[in-house]
UniProtKB/TrEMBL annotation:
<dbReference type="InterPro" id="IPR048053">
    <property type="entry name" value="Cyclin-Q_second_cyclin_box"/>
</dbReference>
<comment type="function">
    <text>Activating cyclin for the cyclin-associated kinase CDK10.</text>
</comment>
<dbReference type="InterPro" id="IPR048055">
    <property type="entry name" value="Cyclin-Q_first_cyclin_box"/>
</dbReference>
<dbReference type="GO" id="GO:0016538">
    <property type="term" value="F:cyclin-dependent protein serine/threonine kinase regulator activity"/>
</dbReference>
<dbReference type="InterPro" id="IPR006671">
    <property type="entry name" value="Cyclin_N"/>
</dbReference>
<feature type="domain" description="Cyclin-like">
    <location>
        <begin position="34"/>
        <end position="132"/>
    </location>
</feature>
<keyword id="KW-0195">Cyclin</keyword>
<keyword id="KW-0007">Acetylation</keyword>
<dbReference type="Pfam" id="PF00134">
    <property type="entry name" value="Cyclin_N"/>
</dbReference>
<dbReference type="InterPro" id="IPR036915">
    <property type="entry name" value="Cyclin-like_sf"/>
</dbReference>
<comment type="similarity">
    <text>Belongs to the cyclin family. Cyclin-like FAM58 subfamily.</text>
</comment>
<dbReference type="GO" id="GO:0006357">
    <property type="term" value="P:regulation of transcription by RNA polymerase II"/>
</dbReference>
<dbReference type="InterPro" id="IPR043198">
    <property type="entry name" value="Cyclin/Ssn8"/>
</dbReference>
<dbReference type="GO" id="GO:0000307">
    <property type="term" value="C:cyclin-dependent protein kinase holoenzyme complex"/>
</dbReference>
<dbReference type="GO" id="GO:1902749">
    <property type="term" value="P:regulation of cell cycle G2/M phase transition"/>
</dbReference>
<protein>
    <recommendedName>
        <fullName>Cyclin-Q</fullName>
    </recommendedName>
</protein>
<dbReference type="InterPro" id="IPR013763">
    <property type="entry name" value="Cyclin-like_dom"/>
</dbReference>
């Protein structure tokens, strides 16, 4: 991984805080998943493959010690594996070059020398390790389809002017994307996460769902009855 890591992050320094002390693991995972998201966008990955890459990363470190593995190498392998799982195949060379540019802005693509091939082999070997650790369970149900369904339903409930004026959908999608910085995707059902980010988006703008006060159940409870979408 040293071919693409920033100089200040070599030798495990990625886990150190501003004062040289070991930072909380959550802070490390936040930085690395941010890398996954930004690298994924530069690689042209869609939302679902990026979400899968983040989920694979978080799930791996639920089983493995952060001190035992380079988190950025795991992240690169997660991107590579997610591309296969979601049938958006990526070349390891592209992942390496995008990662190198991420850590070293303005740099040229890496030469196809021994360091490049060592890094490529490390990604492939790390992918095999991750598959074994995760027992080949790398397919996930994401909240995206639920959130889309809920937004379409909510749009019909709300006043058209309010819907057009207030960026509820944009905010909900942004909150969903940001949720992958942590391990929420591993601890809660997809539909529950979807309705939670929608609820929070409405709270941010102080929007009330019409007739909620007269309803027998809150609107969000209707969405979270653990039924599959048709």
């Amino acid at each position: 991984m040293e071919a693409v890591r920033p100089e200040s992050s070599g030798g495990g320094a990625v886990a150190l805080g501003a004062e040289g002390r070991l930072a909380p693991e959550a802070r490390v995972h936040f930085r690395v998943t941010r890398f996954i998201m930004e690298a994924g966008v530069k690689l042209g990955m869609h939302s679902i493959p990026i979400a899968t890459a983040c989920t694979i990363y978080h799930k791996f470190f639920c089983e493995a010690n952060l001190d035992a593995y380079d988190p950025y190498l795991v992240a690169m392998s997660s991107i590579y594996l997610a591309g296969k799982v979601e049938e958006q195949h990526l070349r390891t060379r592209d992942i390496i070059n995008v990662s190198n540019r991420y850590f070293n802005p303005g740099s040229e693509p890496l030469e196809l020398d021994s360091r490049f091939w060592e890094l490529r082999d490390s990604i492939v070997q790390c992918e095999l390790l991750m598959l074994r650790v995760l027992r080949f369970q790398v397919s996930f149900q994401h909240p995206h389809k639920y959130l889309l369904h809920y937004l379409l339903s909510l749009k019909n409930w709300l006043n058209r002017y309010s819907w057009q004026r207030i960026p509820i959908a944009v905010t909900a999608w942004a909150l969903l994307r940001d949720s992958y910085h942590g391990g929420l995707c591993l601890h809660f059902r997809a539909q529950h996460i979807a309705v939670a980010v929608l609820f929070l988006a409405l709270q941010v703008y102080g929007v009330e769902v019409p007739a909620e006060a007269e309803a027998e159940k809150p609107w969000w409870q209707i969405y979270t009855m653990d039924t599959e979408l048709p």
